[in-house]
Amino acid sequence: MNSVHLSGRVSGTPEARVLPSGDDLVTLRLVVPRPAGGPVDTIDLACWSSQARRSASRLSDGDHVHVSGALRRRFFRTPGGAASRYEVEVSKLTRQRVSG
């Protein structure tokens, strides 16, 4: 089973773009704290569905969200050759209220 659930803080502004194929995509980064106040993990998110793109486009730097999706490995070319990176393909993204 490939199921990912994350809660964290949006880092930066979500980026909407149209790929050469004509597909729409919104990407963003999520900062997820580790237990006991240790370091954080920064996770790349890819929003392909219209619902996920719409939700992501409404977010701002610092918003707290919960994400459901699947882990994907993306392959691409760089000047140095082939490369890959992992990202979460978002199926659902929900803004969370932070008390305090």
Automatic annotation (TrEMBL):
It comes from the Bacteria. It comes from Knoellia sinensis KCTC 19936. Pfam families: SSB. InterPro entries: NA-bd_OB-fold (IPR012340), Primosome_PriB/ssb (IPR000424). PROSITE patterns: SSB (PS50935). Keywords: DNA-binding. This is Single-stranded DNA-binding protein. GO terms for molecular function: single-stranded DNA binding.
